[in-house]
Protein backbone atom coordinates (compact mmCIF):
# COMPACT_ATOMS: atom_id res chain seq x y z
CA UNK A 1 0.00 0.00 0.00
CA UNK A 2 2.85 2.39 0.73
CA UNK A 3 4.22 1.98 -2.76
CA UNK A 4 0.83 2.73 -4.29
CA UNK A 5 0.41 5.69 -1.94
CA UNK A 6 3.79 7.03 -3.08
CA UNK A 7 2.96 6.49 -6.76
CA UNK A 8 -0.34 8.30 -6.28
CA UNK A 9 1.33 11.18 -4.47
CA UNK A 10 3.78 11.55 -7.38
CA UNK A 11 0.96 11.45 -9.93
CA UNK A 12 2.22 8.21 -11.47
CA UNK A 13 -0.77 6.00 -10.60
CA UNK A 14 -4.40 6.28 -9.51
CA UNK A 15 -6.77 3.99 -7.66
CA UNK A 16 -10.12 3.41 -9.34
CA UNK A 17 -13.24 1.64 -8.17
CA UNK A 18 -13.93 -1.79 -9.64
CA UNK A 19 -17.51 -2.08 -10.92
CA UNK A 20 -19.46 -4.64 -8.96
CA UNK A 21 -17.29 -4.64 -5.83
CA UNK A 22 -17.13 -1.53 -3.65
CA UNK A 23 -14.28 -3.00 -1.59
CA UNK A 24 -11.85 -3.45 -4.48
CA UNK A 25 -9.72 -0.77 -6.09
CA UNK A 26 -7.73 -1.17 -9.29
CA UNK A 27 -4.43 0.64 -9.65
CA UNK A 28 -3.84 2.24 -13.04
CA UNK A 29 -0.77 3.96 -14.38
CA UNK A 30 -1.28 7.59 -15.36
CA UNK A 31 -0.01 9.17 -18.59
CA UNK A 32 2.80 10.73 -16.53
CA UNK A 33 3.59 7.26 -15.15
CA UNK A 34 3.75 5.84 -18.68
CA UNK A 35 6.14 8.61 -19.72
CA UNK A 36 8.44 7.92 -16.77
CA UNK A 37 8.31 4.16 -17.38
CA UNK A 38 9.16 4.64 -21.07
CA UNK A 39 12.03 7.00 -20.22
CA UNK A 40 13.43 4.52 -17.68
CA UNK A 41 13.20 1.72 -20.23
CA UNK A 42 15.09 3.76 -22.84
CA UNK A 43 17.74 4.75 -20.27
CA UNK A 44 18.23 1.13 -19.15
CA UNK A 45 18.57 -0.34 -22.65
CA UNK A 46 22.31 0.38 -23.10
CA UNK A 47 23.09 -1.27 -19.76
CA UNK A 48 20.95 -4.27 -20.62
CA UNK A 49 22.82 -4.64 -23.90
CA UNK A 50 26.19 -4.51 -22.10
CA UNK A 51 25.05 -7.14 -19.59
CA UNK A 52 24.28 -9.71 -22.31
CA UNK A 53 27.03 -8.74 -24.74
CA UNK A 54 29.30 -11.60 -23.66
CA UNK A 55 26.70 -14.34 -24.04
CA UNK A 56 27.07 -17.02 -26.69
CA UNK A 57 24.55 -17.36 -29.53
CA UNK A 58 21.21 -18.55 -28.13
CA UNK A 59 22.12 -17.82 -24.51
CA UNK A 60 20.35 -14.46 -24.54
CA UNK A 61 17.08 -16.14 -25.52
CA UNK A 62 17.68 -18.89 -22.95
CA UNK A 63 18.28 -16.30 -20.22
CA UNK A 64 15.16 -14.39 -21.22
CA UNK A 65 13.10 -17.58 -21.14
CA UNK A 66 14.42 -18.59 -17.72
CA UNK A 67 13.85 -15.14 -16.23
CA UNK A 68 10.33 -15.08 -17.65
CA UNK A 69 9.57 -18.48 -16.10
CA UNK A 70 11.00 -17.29 -12.80
CA UNK A 71 8.90 -14.12 -12.80
CA UNK A 72 5.73 -15.78 -14.16
CA UNK A 73 5.79 -19.47 -13.23
CA UNK A 74 3.19 -21.76 -14.74
CA UNK A 75 1.52 -24.60 -12.87
CA UNK A 76 4.00 -26.99 -14.56
CA UNK A 77 6.96 -24.95 -13.21
CA UNK A 78 5.64 -25.22 -9.64
CA UNK A 79 5.58 -29.02 -9.55
Set out the fold topology.
Elements: H1 2-9, E1 13-18, E2 21-29, H2 31-52, H3 59-71, H4 75-78
Keywords:
alpha+beta; two-stranded antiparallel ribbon
Q: Can you walk through the features of this model?
A:
- With 79 residues, the chain is an alpha+beta fold.
- It has helices at residues 2-9, 31-52, 59-71, 75-78, and strands spanning 13-18, 21-29.
- The chain has a two-stranded antiparallel ribbon.
- Strand 1 and strand 2 form a beta hairpin.
- It is flat.
**What general form does the structure show?**
flat
Give the averaged pLDDT, no decimals: 93
**Global structural class:** alpha+beta
Ends distance: 31 Å
What is the beta-strand fraction?
15-25%
Quick structural summary:
The protein has 79 residues and is an alpha+beta fold. It has helices at residues 2-9, 31-52, 59-71, 75-78; strands at 13-18, 21-29.
